[in-house]
Amino acid sequence: MISTDPKTITPTVLARSNHSISRKQIDADSLKVLYRLNRNGHKAYLVGGSVRDLLLGRQPKDFDVGTDATPGQVRKLFRNCFLVGRRFRLAHIRFGKENLIEVATFRRQPEPGELPEDPADHFGFVENVFGSPAEDAFRRDFTINALFYDINDFSIIDYVGGLKDLEEGRIRVIGDPLVRFTEDPVRMLRALEFSARLGFSVDEATREAIYQRAPLIAEAAPSRLRDELMELFRHKVGGTVLRDAQAMGLLAPLLAGYHGEEATFTLLDQFDQRTRRGSPPPEEPFVLAALFLEEFARKCPIDGQQHIGE
Predict the structure, then answer these.
(1) 304: phi > 0 → left, psi -120 to 50 → alpha, else beta; which?
(2) Does residue 247 belong to any structural domain of this protein?
(3) Candidate list 29, 68, 136, 141, residue with the active-site label
(4) Which of 79, 104, 197, 235 has an alpha carbon within 20 to 30 A of 189's alpha carbon?
(5) Range of the domain at 52
(6) Is the dihedral of CA 22, 28, 33, 36 positive or negative?
(7) Any residues with CB less than 8 A from the CB of 170 and at least 6 apart, and which?
(8) Residue 306 binned pLDDT confidence (cut-offs 50, 70, 90)
(9) Residue 264 belongs to a domain with what CATH number?
(10) What is the pTM of this model?
(11) Active site residue 68
(12) Is 136 a catalytic residue?
């Protein structure tokens, strides 16, 4: 469990000569954003999943940027920038019709005395308290997603032990997993998703916390759960993750009355296999039908060996 105070921690820093990431691997428009922020006196880091994937030799889907520049300062530097999000203010910088670079200002957890008097105002406020890179790293979900690539000297900065976990193939929550899963129960599904996508193990403390906090998944926002469910199939790991979720007690509170029949999991595996072969991911109604209509799963496997009416 990572519990060091971000205000006093000394990060692990890998110089360019000690890691495999090259600027040639980074999206050209993202580099433009990083360089311009850096030239104007701001910290500018490649953050999150892109750093993780590059270190694993994978091609990132997105290249997100973290900076100490406020959203307003970012907008002044880029004519092609617009600000989005009321709850979590972000800068989006558009290049042409296809490429959009997301820039987030480093955040931190507010001190108790900083919170608004009205509790109803807390939620939006806590998402927009700007902080240091270390404080931002400690807000992230898993150690392997909290690595930073510094465009100033091309080093990798690790405040939370993510490099070791990446090397050892481990999914580990930042902070106390019981607390972090209580804050956001969807993180439990995400832990299983990254485990399946990367072929990593879930560390013991994180796994035990999933068992203990599994009932909380029923309290997560339905829209987020739906998005996370479909994300599993976009990454071709829906069947694997939902099998793990069933074994760890996550499906029972999430899908009341659902028994997790093998026919259902077989159909979900077939969705993933088709997507790996190049077919589009399954559409949401088909996934929901497979999950909720077990008779449908038994009689309608994707391979066509059986048919409704047999």
Answers:
(1) left
(2) yes
(3) 141
(4) 104
(5) 12-167
(6) positive
(7) 200, 201, 202, 203
(8) very low
(9) 1.10.3090.10
(10) 0.83
(11) no
(12) no
